[in-house]
Specification:
It is a single chain. This protein has about 325 residues and is of the alpha+beta class. The chain folds into two domains: about 120 residues, Rossmann fold (3-Layer(aba) Sandwich); about 180 residues, Tumour Suppressor Smad4. It has nine helices and 16 strands. Strands 5, 6, 7, 8, 9, 10, 13, 14, 15 and 16 form a ten-stranded antiparallel beta sheet that branches. Strands 2-1-3-4 form a four-stranded parallel beta sheet, with helices on both faces. Strands 11-12 form a two-stranded antiparallel sheet. The two termini are about 15 Å apart. About 45% of the residues are buried.
Length: about 325
């Protein structure tokens, strides 16, 4: 099997020695080519070339969620197709939501062992993905989440801190979330975002909106964060939103999304957060988020600037992943 290993040399938790060990292990079973990313978007370009080449069977992403997202967007540059290379992931970032949501070990060495075992037994899985569309800019596929509003603003603040030399940690995210909460007082009371769903009344006044393609949304250390616990790689998209972020209400919602969720007696899926200012939709294929003013936007933890209108669609069986 011919494979391309796309390595992010700046991956948070992977040393050069670990990368060498992983490369050697993969070469024992694969005809492997290794490419190191050199700039933002390079992983996308490498994966796109591999997909267009037609002779690559597998693309392995070694890095964090940002590297995985770039590889996915490269593979799907021309849309889903049966002939596309399969995707495999070896986690190397600080959180690795996508890999962990697939059930992979969070340790890169253990994940490599799991990958080799999956290849030996030909285990793969077709998963759904989300696609975000804004007029005038390229569409963006996402593997586990997208967001417009407050949560994307936090992601933007974290990226600024990382550019200034701070290491990406869970403590950094929590710190920046608290700072963002303090500075966004006006928007916490009356959000600028409206959710438009086909055939339904618009939902205005959203402070933040989280679009989920799977669950959990993210992790705090080893603890999953679950705003949409029913989201799944086998379904379309889930939407979670908050129309007002008071101190008491926000604390209550945070407690809800950090607890374990089990299905209610009469429910077919886990019950997520509830409350007066909570908005939740499950398994939605098409919808649009519109903001009265440009709002921060992110996909898979990558801040993409401000957007005023973003349409979303869920695409089932968009990509096959080795698991």
């Amino acid at each position: 099997m011919r494979a391309l290993l796309v390595v992010n040399p700046k991956a948070t938790t992977t040393s050069g020695r670990t990368r060498d060990v992983l490369t050697h292990a993969l070469r024992s079973d694969l005809k492997l080519e290794v490419a190191h990313t050199e700039y933002r978007g390079h992983a996308r370009d490498l994966a796109r070339s591999a997909a267009e080449d037609g002779t690559v069977d597998l693309v392995v992403a070694l890095g964090g969620d940002g590297t995985v997202n770039e590889v996915v967007n490269g593979l799907l540059a021309h849309g889903p197709a049966d002939r596309l290379p399969r995707l495999a992931v070896v986690p190397g970032g600080s959180t690795n939501v996508f890999a962990r949501a697939l059930g992979l070990p969070n340790d890169p060495v253990e994940a490599t062992g799991a990958l080799l075992d999956a290849l030996e037994h030909r285990r793969e899985r077709a998963i759904s993905l989300g696609k975000a569309m804004t007029e005038g800019v390229p569409d963006r596929w996402f593997t586990f989440t997208a967001g417009l509003g407050f949560d994307a603003g936090v992601v933007g603040r974290v990226e600024e801190q990382r550019k200034a030399g701070r290491k990406s940690t869970h403590a950094l995210y929590v710190n920046q979330a608290l700072r963002h909460y303090v500075t966004e007082r006006e928007h916490r009371r009356s959000g600028p975002i409206t959710l438009e769903l086909n055939g339904q009344e618009p939902v205005p006044g959203l402070v933040m909106t989280i679009v989920s393609n799977t669950s959990p949304w993210t992790y705090l250390g080893n603890r999953p964060v679950l705003p949409s616990p029913g989201a799944s790689f086998e379904k379309d998209l889930d939407v979670f939103g908050i129309t007002r972020m008071t101190a008491f209400g926000t604390a209550r919602t945070v407690r809800q999304i950090l607890r374990s969720h089990t299905p209610a007696d009469t429910a077919e899926r886990p019950v997520g957060p509830r409350g007066k200012h909570v908005v939740s939709y499950h398994d939605v294929r098409h919808f649009t988020l519109v903001s009265e003013e440009p709002a921060p936007f992110q996909v898979d933890g990558d801040h993409l600037g401000d957007r005023s209108r973003v349409s979303f669609t869920g695409v089932r069986r968009a990509l096959r992943v080795i698991v």
